[in-house]
Amino acid sequence: MIASDVESAEVSEIAREIASQPACWGQAARQWAQLAGALPSPRARVGAVGCGTSLYVAQAYAALRESRTGAETDAYAASEAPADRAWDAVVAISRSGTTTEVARFLETTSRTPRIAIVGVTDTPVAAASDELVDLSFADERSVVQTRFATSALALLRASVGEDLGVAIADAERALEAPLPLEPAAHDHYVFLGTGWSVGLANEAALKLREAAGAWSESYPAMEYRHGPISVARTGSVVWSLGDVDPSVLEDVERTGATVVTGTLDPMAELILIQRTAVALAEHRGLEPDHPRHLTRSVVLS
């Protein structure tokens, strides 16, 4: 059955923010063209850090940058990043600019050039940086991140020479297309990626957990058969982002799970997944803008 989004009497903030992503990505690409020298040079050794969604953006950026430029690029949760690694620059991603772990990390790496990508500029993360990338146009009212994260990644993709034309066109398609499944018919979601789309698979699983309280997982595609496939069954969805080996998906089909083969640019495929998360949340009577136990930023005492 092909599903459409669950209709709601009132459109949520997250739904509006999801819909604004193609325009935001275009603005991010244009902004990159004006940021000469702000981001690391192509040969620099870089450490990228973030928390939550921003960590997964950092993972995608690190894999993509290393594959495109050959320059060593690491991604860490800010709380786990080594302060003494011999990086030429660090890139810190924080929508709110107030995330304690990110600010603390930057404060301990004062001898390394520090670049912060933020949605709010008058903040501790911004103050602790040497170069500031202001993405306030993509800041959000929803607790759950969508457009800030993808706009940051759009800018970072542009910084390694990627043309975002296809991604933006695919994003428009992802906003108009019917969902590839009926969200309420499934209670288990798995997302598979490869290369830079592993970070997006991690983010996809987080969106289903945050917005809809769903049982969701994510893996590098070839790792899925090394244990996790044992819980796949009717009621499971296994959704691929990027170039996943077809043999993995053939094995999944034999379990009775529903396979969704992503055909769009992985960042645009994420839009379909964001829409699925909102639809499932609304079906469950949840408020996707304000998930249980979550706040816009984690600020520690």
What does this structure look like?
This protein has helices spanning 13-19, 21-33, 53-69, 100-108, 124-127, 147-159, 165-176, 197-212, 246-253, 266-283; strands at residues 46-50, 73-77, 89-94, 114-118, 131-134, 188-193, 215-220, 236-240, 258-261. The chain is α/β, with parallel strands linked by helices. It has two domains: 35-159, Rossmann fold; 177-283, Glucose-6-phosphate isomerase like protein, domain 1 (Rossmann fold), CATH 3.40.50. The protein has a five-stranded parallel sheet with strand order 2-1-3-4-5, with helices on both faces. Strands 7-6-8-9 form a four-stranded parallel sheet, sandwiched between helices. Helix 2 (21-33) runs parallel beside helix 6 (147-159) and helix 8 (197-212) packs parallel to helix 10 (266-283). The radius of gyration is 19 Å and the shape is globular.
